[in-house]
């Protein structure tokens, strides 16, 4: 009988020093092992490559955004143990993190990849800003791109919340397709932060009520404390609708990252009150069944409450949900 491509079990060292298992393959042409995972989708479905992590060191953001840079290859290693360069570039973290996020959506929500149909998850690591440090990461509509970091920030894939955030943008694009501007854009950001942090707290078993659980990018810090260098905090109580920043569309697409914690803060409070499992289901159902591209925070609240009704949550939980939105100034 024909031998199915089963993949190889490799290992890697993350930027935090932890060793993790990695699904890799032997590339016989290059005579190397490469960060290519073909194990996560059954063969019968006709998909091979589930996740590939690409060496884009020294490529500039302008060369990779919205296009496939010529000549890049999947990150390689002479043996099954990925360390050294693969660690330093954030390739191990991106490949491991990508698999964590893939498994989260598959296991918790029955979703196969970002599009729900097994699309390959491609991650480019080591990207620079014209040869300079690049402290950002993004979903470009087709793939994840991770910057190389700088003196304070590790390569951005070192944050599982960041990996979860960018991959969730892919899920949002294939579901509610929230327009990336103004309130719908802030909600797109909020949902990316919500799932990014949810996935990180699950993977590292951080208690829901941990005061640092809402920090975004907290694992990237090299010298500062997590709270000092994190990009955002979903538990920031000042982020209510009355703090909504109406800014021009030229500024952060109308403040998508400035206003996101208003909505994400409500979701994160709900997660503390209703528990992780239920709240994740509600947010996922709201995203996939109710939200539409131009929705704002009020519609977002209604979507989560409708999902709660569908799933038959208790009256007490309904009340707790309403309280969470009210506390952030998101009222019907
Ligand atoms: N890290 C940012 C994000 O994913 C990049 C951006 O502004 N699109 O939201
Ligand atoms: Zn984002």
Automatic annotation (TrEMBL):
<feature type="domain" description="Peptidase M4 C-terminal">
    <location>
        <begin position="176"/>
        <end position="330"/>
    </location>
</feature>
<protein>
    <recommendedName>
        <fullName>M4 family peptidase</fullName>
    </recommendedName>
</protein>
<comment type="similarity">
    <text>Belongs to the peptidase M4 family.</text>
</comment>
<feature type="domain" description="Peptidase M4">
    <location>
        <begin position="10"/>
        <end position="173"/>
    </location>
</feature>
